[in-house]
């Protein structure tokens, strides 16, 4: 056998992958290895795609392709008049998966719900730190310890959550990945066998797919759960082929080694779109990239100065060169797919001449500033360094000298939070639950200016009152009005230059049907079918 | 003889201690706070930060941490990854077979081609064969292999579609209780096509990784051979009318192999460095890529444990080469 | 080796030595070609501002990823442009400066530190020798690129730190070579004579012994020069070396990776530039070794 014929034989074997004896297999070229299979200790979408989405369910769930909620493991719920008690009626007859060494003896019930939350809240729960470095950053990050007062089991099929004060986004929070429901029976068995850490290696959930095997940094295998409460998935096997390089993912898709892939390199979109075996779906991402000025630092404490700089930066050029067209210019701090997005707002026009004049009028000359560019690629920002270079060139044209600074990612996050920070910082945000509060309060409230996650350290009373009021109101029409007004205040004060909302692309084989893109950036394969 | 071996092994102990200090010390002065990275853009409150720092033990005096590190290392415990929350030793040895398989293949390739080419080039010194092969060897030796890998991917996977782009075997083959050595698993499973699939995935990374060792071995073999061919006893054997093939086969080759074996041993450390780049380019799920990822994720314990294990492995291989050398070449023992 | 080195010492003036060296060096055709190419690279680096058609940092936003030989309103892009519309040829020419700079700095750093450590270890022996050489052993126990990687991660990514890291992992080779040479020279008659004549340790080490250990050091220095360029490029490629927009070749390659299938030129040319310069230096290195190392001269 010559080398050449051997290689061809290998290629032929690859082509056979899609065949197989009647079993339908979908191969997803995923972008990275999951950190583990227990979603609660993690915060990255990659990990959720491999754990909470195929394997687990939540009490309430996001309706496919939207940020609206629908019943999940809870069939229905009641909210008290004062907005303080949430009572969930659980779905009967839901079965947990069986894995090697564990077969569930009972159906899903209230104990599982209590366990799934208690282990994140209660230091005495044996699973609070089942490995020395485990911690629940999402649960804490979403302020759950402050929001939730207590969780009680009313009966086997009813659970009651009591809150400390009314909180409109709370229900959406329960649809998030950290709120996935694990099997208490399985956890107890692992604890009895003294292998608690396996809860992170071999997940047992109620979701549409059962975990089969994981080869580290290479392949994850799942099979369809025949007892799934919404019905068995159309495909029989789901495989994640872990492929960190976007160019390689694309080649694999074109070669038929996988049928669907996330995060193509913007540079390759043209080639993908012109491939006759591939279709590319796209959707605006639920995110924003911004340049936050330090509003506590002169001369950036003046709104005119900030506005002038915004007008000097050519955002379209950034979309072209950095996003390679895979994005849109942002004018508001929330993305256009989110409810309450105020489309009446007009962006400050790109006008270097006017900007120059505004600066002069404000009495600013020979301005020298720092632009912070983060060292990593994020879903909302493909290349911060390149963005900063473009900004630097633009600002030079109005006589502002910009220096680009960067730090290692952890340092960057920390130093950018310091109110004495020198310069404007490029950063962004990806929505967690589709609620505007998750952008406006987290990134721009006075409380956030205090804690530092408001990187502009901008505290405006009008704005803050509006969003605080909205968070306590349950009526969505009412909330929408309040958020729309808040965006007007934001634009007028310009604490940020809103740079872009990235567009998310999902190339897939034309044989794939039923894939619905999630505005939250989830990759969900329940309901997807593949034509043989 | 035994004293020579024991002496060699004892000599390594201070180096080993040095290695633990380096692995621990370097990594503990890495800037950047792993606790902050765990939270990302979301951030965490100062209280929560202090609590986590304490939970992970980063707030204790550095020498206490080193003492604990050493104590745990002596018990075979290298700590737990901050990212996956799994034991480092487990992570390392899950990925190690992939690197070992790639490394062995590259080494076999390098020796199988490098030695004969070197021998031939020496015998036909000055011929066009000598010039072309030694010229290519120098090019190989000067090659930025990360670029070379990209070029091969463009050509063989992108344009010609002869080889798969990345991965270790086609996804249709699955060995639930595999050893991690794909070729072995493929043969053991008896599935049709599994072996050729594994080989076709292995070939490009092996070529890339073999490039520099191949060049070094070919050059070294040639010059060792030339030296031996010039020795008196070879000339004598020739003068006595021994057929050239026997002269080269029996006398020259065997003596020329002594420095070549040392060279091959020294290439093991080089291979590990090459594996970092090769694995990154081909998304090969091995130790090299894992180290790069761990460094960029600030996974302290993983970098620590990885550095330590890699250094120990390189040291053990060098020790074996040393001992072999002592066996082949008795002179060295009495130095 | 030792006898020949010894006969070298009294042999005439520097000029004669150089003439002899040049005689052997120019025998080696490869070495001469290497030297010529190297000189060209040096010229490119020195005259980069004159030779390059564009400012290496100027962005032509209407000519993103233009193919080689493209004409535009701004001028002719001989080797095309990169993702933000910068002329590749100009960046490569400026990149030559960085590569040479890296090579020189790393060699000077590692050579001087390594030679001093080696001299001390070899000359004084005893515990000084033990400690120095043990530390060198520890450094050499790690694969060099891996150690450099961790070093740069500690110091923070950047060109300066990358150079320091590479110099650090390279200097043990110089230290070992120097030590070995010192040990073989230390007890020779001419050293004894100088010692009897009352020369101090410093003078003996640096003025008497060191000049006679130069040949292997020069060969090692050329090797290190090319290795430094390769390693710095590798670090740049892994995102830890020179930071963009610096037109360092490895960094350019790493930035270009995402365009591998769409714009071959942004990937091909920086790599080719690295290969050619490293090859030229290695060719020279071979020639130097043959000319300076009398043992191999025979073969």
Automatic annotation (TrEMBL), chain A:
CDD domains: PBP2_DppA_like. It is found in: Periplasm. Residues 1-23 form the signal peptide. Gene3D superfamilies: Dipeptide-binding Protein, Domain 1 (3.90.76.10), Dipeptide-binding Protein, Domain 3 (3.10.105.10), Periplasmic binding protein-like II (3.40.190.10). InterPro entries: Peptide/Ni-bd, SBP_5, SBP_5_dom. Pfam families: SBP_bac_5 (PF00496). Its main location: periplasm. This is Dipeptide transport protein. Belongs to the bacterial solute-binding protein 5 family. GO terms for molecular function: peptide transmembrane transporter activity. Residues 68-449 form the Solute-binding protein family domain. GO terms for biological process: dipeptide transport. GO terms for cellular component: ATP-binding cassette (ABC) transporter complex; outer membrane-bounded periplasmic space. It comes from the Bacteria. It comes from Thioclava atlantica. The keyword Transmembrane helix does not apply. Keywords: Signal.
From TrEMBL, chain B:
Residues 96-325 form the ABC transmembrane type-1 domain. Keywords: Cell membrane, Membrane, Transmembrane, Transmembrane helix, Transport. InterPro entries: BPD_transp_1_N (IPR045621), MetI-like (IPR000515), MetI-like_sf (IPR035906). It is found in: Cell membrane. The keyword Iron-sulfur does not apply. It holds the Pfam family BPD_transp_1_N. SUPFAM superfamilies: MetI-like. GO terms for molecular function: dipeptide transmembrane transporter activity. GO terms for cellular component: plasma membrane. The chain crosses the membrane at residues 9-30, 100-123, 144-163, 198-218, 264-287, 307-328. Belongs to the binding-protein-dependent transport system permease family. This is ABC transmembrane type-1 domain-containing protein. It comes from Thioclava atlantica.
UniProtKB/TrEMBL annotation, chain C:
InterPro entries: BP-dependent_transpt_permease, MetI-like, MetI-like_sf, OppC_N. One of its GO terms (cellular component) is plasma membrane. GO terms for molecular function: dipeptide transmembrane transporter activity. CDD domains: TM_PBP2. One of its GO terms (biological process) is protein transport. It is found in: Cell inner membrane; Cell membrane. It is a multi-pass membrane protein. Keywords: Cell inner membrane, Cell membrane, Membrane, Peptide transport, Protein transport, Transmembrane, Transmembrane helix, Transport. Residues 96-285 form the ABC transmembrane type-1 domain. The keyword Transport applies. The keyword Cell inner membrane applies. The chain crosses the membrane at residues 31-51, 100-125, 145-169, 259-281. Pfam families: BPD_transp_1 (PF00528), OppC_N (PF12911). Belongs to the binding-protein-dependent transport system permease family. OppBC subfamily. This is ABC transmembrane type-1 domain-containing protein.
């Amino acid at each position: 056998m010559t080398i050449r014929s051997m290689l061809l034989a290998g290629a032929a074997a690859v082509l056979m992958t899609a065949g197989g004896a009647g079993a339908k297999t979908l191969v997803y070229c995923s972008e990275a290895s999951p950190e583990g299979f227990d979603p609660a200790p993690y915060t990255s979408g990659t990990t959720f795609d491999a754990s909470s989405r195929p394997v687990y369910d939540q009490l309430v769930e996001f309706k496919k392709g939207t940020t609206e909620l629908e019943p999940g493991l809870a069939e229905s719920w009641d909210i008290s008049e004062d907005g303080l008690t949430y009572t969930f009626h659980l779905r009967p007859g839901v079965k947990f998966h069986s894995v090697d060494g564990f077969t569930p003896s009972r159906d899903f019930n209230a104990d599982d719900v209590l366990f799934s939350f208690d282990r994140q809240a209660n230091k005495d729960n044996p699973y609070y730190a089942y490995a020395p470095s485990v911690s629940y950053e999402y649960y804490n990050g979403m302020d759950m310890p402050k929001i939730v007062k207590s969780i009680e089991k009313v009966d086997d099929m009813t659970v009651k959550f009591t809150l400390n004060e009314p909180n409109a986004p709370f229900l959406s929070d329960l649809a998030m990945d950290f709120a996935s429901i694990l099997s208490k029976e399985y956890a107890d068995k692992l604890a009895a066998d003294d292998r608690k850490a396996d809860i992170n290696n071999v997940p047992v959930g109620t979701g549409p797919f059962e975990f089969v095997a994981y080869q580290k940094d290479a392949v994850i295998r799942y099979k369809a759960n025949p007892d799934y409460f919404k019905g068995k998935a159309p495909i029989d096997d789901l495989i994640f082929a872990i492929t960190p390089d976007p160019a390689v993912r694309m080649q694999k898709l074109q070669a038929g080694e996988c049928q669907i892939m996330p995060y193509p390199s913007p540079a390759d979109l043209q080639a993908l779109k012109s491939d006759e075996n591939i279709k590319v779906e796209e959707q605006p991402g639920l995110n924003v990239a911004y340049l936050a000025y330090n509003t506590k630092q002169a001369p950036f404490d003046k709104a005119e100065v900030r506005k002038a700089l915004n007008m000097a930066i050519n955002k379209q050029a950034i979309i072209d060169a950095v996003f390679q067209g895979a994005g849109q210019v942002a004018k508001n701090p929330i993305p256009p797919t989110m409810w309450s997005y105020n489309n009446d707002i007009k962006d400050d026009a790109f006008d270097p001449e006017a900007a120059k004049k505004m600066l002069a009028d404000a009495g600013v000359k020979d301005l020298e500033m720092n632009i912070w560019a983060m060292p990593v690629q994020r879903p909302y920002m493909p290349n911060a360094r390149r963005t900063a270079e473009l900004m630097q060139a633009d600002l030079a044209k109005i006589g502002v000298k910009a220096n680009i600074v960067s730090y290692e990612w952890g340092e960057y996050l920390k130093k950018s939070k310091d109110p004495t920070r020198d310069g404007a910082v490029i950063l962004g945000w990806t929505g967690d639950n589709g609620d505007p509060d998750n952008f406006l309060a987290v990134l721009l409230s006075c409380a956030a200016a205090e804690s530092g996650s408001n990187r502009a350290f901008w505290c405006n009373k009008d704005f803050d009152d509006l969003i605080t009021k909205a968070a306590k109101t349950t009526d969505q029409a009412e909330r929408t009005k309040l958020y729309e007004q808040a965006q007007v205040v934001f634009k007028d004060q310009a604490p940020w230059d809103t740079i872009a909302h990235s567009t998310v692309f999902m190339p897939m084989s034309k044989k794939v049907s039923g894939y619905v893109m999630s505005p939250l950036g989830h990759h969900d394969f329940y309901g997807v079918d593949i034509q043989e | 003889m035994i004293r020579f071996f024991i002496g060699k092994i004892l000599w390594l102990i201070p180096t080993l201690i040095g290695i633990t200090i380096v692995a621990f010390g370097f990594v503990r002065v890495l800037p950047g706070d792993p606790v902050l990275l765990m939270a990302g853009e979301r951030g965490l409150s100062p209280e929560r930060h202090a609590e986590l720092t304490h939970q992970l033990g980063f707030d204790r005096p550095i020498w206490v941490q080193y003492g604990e590190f050493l104590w745990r290392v002596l018990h075979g415990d290298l700590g737990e990854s901050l990212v996956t929350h799994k034991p480092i030793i487990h992570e390392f040895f899950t990925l190690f077979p992939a690197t070992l398989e790639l490394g062995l293949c590259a080494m076999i390739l390098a020796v199988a081609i490098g030695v004969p080419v070197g021998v031939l080039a020496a015998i036909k010194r000055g011929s066009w064969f000598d010039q072309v092969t030694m010229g290519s060897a120098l090019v190989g030796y000067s090659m930025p292999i990360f670029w070379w890998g990209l070029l091969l991917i463009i050509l063989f996977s992108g344009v010609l579609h002869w080889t798969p782009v990345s991965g270790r075997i086609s996804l249709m083959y699955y060995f639930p209780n595999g050893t991690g050595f794909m070729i072995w698993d493929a043969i053991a499973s008896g599935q049709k096509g599994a072996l050729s699939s594994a080989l076709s995935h292995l070939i490009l990374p092996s070529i890339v990784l073999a490039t520099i060792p191949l060049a070094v071995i070919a050059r070294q073999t040639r010059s060792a051979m030339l030296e031996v061919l010039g020795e008196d006893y070879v000339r004598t054997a020739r003068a006595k009318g021994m057929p050239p093939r026997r002269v080269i086969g029996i006398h020259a080759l065997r003596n020329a192999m002594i420095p070549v074996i040392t060279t091959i041993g020294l290439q093991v450390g080089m291979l590990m460095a090459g594996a970092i780049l090769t694995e990154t380019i081909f998304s090969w799920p091995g130790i090299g890529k894992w180290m790069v990822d761990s460094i960029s994720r600030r996974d302290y314990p993983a970098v620590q444990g990885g550095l330590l294990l890699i250094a120990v492995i390189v040291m053990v291989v060098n020790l074996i080469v040393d001992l072999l050398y002592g066996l082949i070449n008795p002179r060295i023992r009495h130095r | 080796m030792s006898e020949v080195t010894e006969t070298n010492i009294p042999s005439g003036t520097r000029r004669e030595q150089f003439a002899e060296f040049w005689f052997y060096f120019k025998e080696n055709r490869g070495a001469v070609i290497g030297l010529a190419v190297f000189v060209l690279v040096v010229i490119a680096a020195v005259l980069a501002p004159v030779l390059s058609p564009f400012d290496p940092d100027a962005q032509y936003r209407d000519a993103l990823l233009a193919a080689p030989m493209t004409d535009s309103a701004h001028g002719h892009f001989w080797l095309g442009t990169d993702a933000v519309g910068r002329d590749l040829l100009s960046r490569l020419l400026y990149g030559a400066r960085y590569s040479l700079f890296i090579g020189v700095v790393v060699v000077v750093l590692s050579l001087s530190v390594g030679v001093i450590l080696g001299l001390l270890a070899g000359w004084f022996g005893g515990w000084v020798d033990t400690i120095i050489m043990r530390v060198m052993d520890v450094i050499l126990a790690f694969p060099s690129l891996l150690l450099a990687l961790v070093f740069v991660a500690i110091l923070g990514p950047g060109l300066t730190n990358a150079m320091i890291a590479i110099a650090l992992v390279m200097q043990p080779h110089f230290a070992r070579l120097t030590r070995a040479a010192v040990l073989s020279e230390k007890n020779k008659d001419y050293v004894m004579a100088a010692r009897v004549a009352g020369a101090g340790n410093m003078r003996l080490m640096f003025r008497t012994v060191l000049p006679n250990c130069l040949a292997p050091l020069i060969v090692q220095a050329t090797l290190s020069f090319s290795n430094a360029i390769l390693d710095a490029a590798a670090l740049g490629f892994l995102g830890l070396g020179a930071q963009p927009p610096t037109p360092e070749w490895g960094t350019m390659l790493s930035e270009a990776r995402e365009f591998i299938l769409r714009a071959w030129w942004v990937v091909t040319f920086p790599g080719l530039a690295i290969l050619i310069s490293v090859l030229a230096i290695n060719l020279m290195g071979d020639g130097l070794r043959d000319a300076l190392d009398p043992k191999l001269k025979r073969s």
